[in-house]
Amino acid sequence: MLAPTIAILGIFGIVPFLYVLYVAFHQWNPFGANPYMIYNGAGNFRRLVFDSEFLTSIAFTLKFAFFAVFSEVILGYLLAQLFMREFPGRAFFRTIHTLPLIVAPIVVGSVWRLMTTPSIGIIPYLLKSWFGYDLNIGRDATMAFALTVIMDIWHWTPLVTLTLLAALVSLPKEPFEQAQIDGANRWQIFWHVTLPMIRPAILATVFIRLMDALRTVDEVWMLTGGGPGAATRYLGLHIWKIVFPKTDYGYGSATSIIVLYLTLVMCWLLYVALVARRGQRRTP
Amino acid sequence: MEHTVDLDEVDEEANTIVASPERTGFLPIVTNWFDRIFVGIYLFVALELLWMRFLEQSIPLVACHVLAVALGVLIVWKG
């Protein structure tokens, strides 16, 4: 029964991973002077730990992931709570708030680029006419970073909302009624009843969004191209630049392996911090 | 002849079977053997990278291999 699943996982998951791992221990630039793979041991990894561009992009990516995921979870939860209430047009708003999810990331990047390009974009125009602020993400590194975060929030908050809405809808009413009878206020109900009950959903959402945020490429590529300078050159973009324009496959593979490693470590640490502390049984 | 089943005994047996792979060692979490191998590999990679960055100029990487493998074995065995 499991054979097809294992075969598909092996072909599309494990074999490419093992191949990338194999390439990571080689020097390989098929368009260079020597197009053949040359084994160089841990040479790519040694080069990696001294690569200031890579280390900088780790810092930028972690900052991006933190701000984006944290904001999405907070905003997503608030929206989910809003959609739990009765108000006119609730079904309509529930439907349209998911629209960003069906837009391809490359299109999201293009649209935000058009909206933020000085002289033709609506955002610089409004900021200039309302606040006198001159927005130019080609020059202002802080604004470029902030806009990549805002774009990610705009694109992915609906996913968080949907997940948390599903979790909130499925909660039983009895614990809330019991808490109200016991005289708990709204904050106490949220902290002691709602939050523990939707914790698995929050955790799953954070994992999904964190993994996504750590490998974001296309949106940022379209919006800023990694600039100005290297201000928005996140890890995915850094790998793309090594592998495609420079065709340095060995070094790119080593970088990919380290990014995978960082993602796993972060998810595992989060899991340990929130779920698998000593004395608690693990959920399967 | 009437055959009776002691449900408490069955429950206890089932719990024993499920709980047996997990245990607590010096790691601050409940782990099974796969978790400990996982943690061992994490630390192996982290140690190798940090060694290459800060210590390789003075101490060869082979020392790190030995240390990382020993740490991995310790975690799998006692973690």
Structure description:
The complex is a heterodimer of chains A (284) and B (79). Chain A is mostly helical and 284 residues long. Chain A has one domain: MetI-like fold (Orthogonal Bundle). Helices cover 70% and strands 1% of the residues of chain A. A two-stranded antiparallel sheet of chain A has the order 1-2. In chain A, helix 9 runs antiparallel to helix 12 and helix 11 runs antiparallel to helix 12. Chain B is an all-alpha fold. Chain B has one domain. Helices cover 67% and strands 0% of the residues of chain B. Chain B contains three helices and no strands. Chain B is rod-shaped, with a radius of gyration of 21 Å. At the A-B interface, helix 2 and helix 12 of A face helix 2 of B.
Strand content of chain B: under 5%
- Overall, the morphology of chain A is globular
In the CATH hierarchy, the architecture of chain A is Orthogonal Bundle
Total strands of chain A = 2
Mean pLDDT of chain A: 90
User: First CA to last CA of chain A: what distance?
Assistant: 21 Å
Q: Of all protein chain pairs, which has the greatest interface, and how many residues does each chain bring to it?
A: A-B, 19 and 15 residues
The helix fraction of chain A, in percent, is: 55-70%
